[in-house]
Amino acid sequence: MNGGQENGEERSERPERSDSLKNRMSMQRSYSIENGYPGKTRSLVGDAKFETLVRRETRKSLLQDASTEFEEVEDSEIALLESLAESDEQVKLTFMVQARDALLGLTRMLKILEVEEASLDFLETRQPRIDLRSMNIEMEFLLSCQVKRTKMLHLMKSLKTSNGLAGAKLVSGQRGEREVTWFPKHISELDHCNHVLTKFEPELDMEHPGWKDQEYRKRRKIIADISFNYKYGDKIPCVEYTKEDIQTWDVVYSKVKELLPGRASSVHRKYLEIMERECGYGLGRIPQLEEVSEFLRRTSGFSLRPAAGLVTARDFLASLAFRVFQCTQYVRHPSSPHYSPEPDVLHELIGHCPMFADPTFAQFSQEIGLASLGATDDEIEKLATLYWFTVEFGLCKEHGEVRAYGAGLLSSFGELLHSLSKKQAIEYRPFDPISAAAQEYDDQAYQDIYYVAESFEDAKQKLRSWVMSSLTRPFTVRYMPFTQSIEVLDTFGSTNNLIQELKVQVTQLSGAFDQIQSRNTEIVVA
Fold this sequence. Notes:
The protein is α/β, with parallel strands linked by helices. It has helices spanning 44-69, 75-84, 102-115, 152-161, 214-229, 243-259, 266-278, 289-299, 313-321, 345-356, 359-372, 377-392, 407-410, 413-419, 433-438, 456-470, 496-525; strands at residues 90-99, 119-125, 129-130, 137-148, 167-175, 303-306, 324-327, 395-398, 401-404, 427-430, 449-453, 476-480, 485-489. Strands 1, 2, 3, 4 and 5 form a five-stranded antiparallel sheet that branches. Strands 9-8-11-10 form a four-stranded mixed sheet. Strands 6-7 form a two-stranded parallel ribbon. The longest helix has 30 residues, at 496-525.
């Protein structure tokens, strides 16, 4: 998931982005330099940050529209509009409306709400008074309604300029009850979570190492089709790797493995050795995803799913909620074994898979995925950033020493050496989700900030606390491993299954303690 790297050293990347704004924004988005997308490589957070840029431009456009649409707009109203410019689909607006004629004014307000498809939340009348010249009953209304954010300017203009009304002022505004973005609730629904925004194939980038290699481009398309045709329950088809593919694997694998002792987490080294025995890791052969997936199921419950290219951030993180890792199958171009502008199977198998074999790390990764279900676009960006600083570029302590556990480090000898070099320019911070989720970074250069976890368990507990205090979704979720489904906990009744399971677990734990105590007593007596 990491980006390209200079000096001939590898940086692979998983470029993805959040996409749920696509039907809401008035601005057409194109992931090109001409339209403001920075750089040639893409990353999970890079795409999410581009969404933020789009939203910022939309906010500027909205405020310009407000100042040109209305002749008289107060500064307080401009401030309220600005605060709502990046809100979700619905906004809640409160107006003080003046009507020259109470009955006509009420009729006009309700008609405007109907036309703008706004829902009435609250309506209160103020003390009426009689206009002695026209003998009309004038009245003020306190009107509160919910409307789509894209229609709030037109609603405001209609209330201010309607012939049947004397004027209106926006007095408050807040986010409405947001519509929760769809998310998969069963592992089979991941078939709908494979949206590839931009296939980062060599024919799309003139600077890609495989740009001029027609045979390589043809093979990449064949491998991508395997992923496009894959459905839940299928076995992952084998890929017949070429001699050049295997040579590229050998070059990267031998170089990285040489550097792992004293630098890589003991968890990674432990499972890499096991996978050499059970999954065919080593020189002369690239392991197939199906055999690695079967191994992961036995060790941690994780599994692999073939990915055709760069999956959206929301879809990618949602897969982690089911302990599924969307994994590419193609190999970087043989002319550049230590550089890849995109994630490839070397990065996935060498960097990620040995870590996913560990139950504790698997749980930590799943927690990030579960947090993404129903999250807003801003929250997806923060979770993608957390993923970057942990699963991709994380460091941890082991017996007082700092070791690498992020896949972007473990699959790249340049990144690995740099991350532990203790150069003056590098800052090592204790892992803190609040800080990490908001931290800017450069995905086209070596990192200058790394977050160091005390342990995977400590990182998991801190992540849970951050999720509970930071996410705005009106529910929580839990994974049901027996049915491979997601249970939404949003009412007291929906917690009954969890309560019953906790009772069973407490009973089992109590019984285990009793047996241990009884056995220890027998040993002491003997």
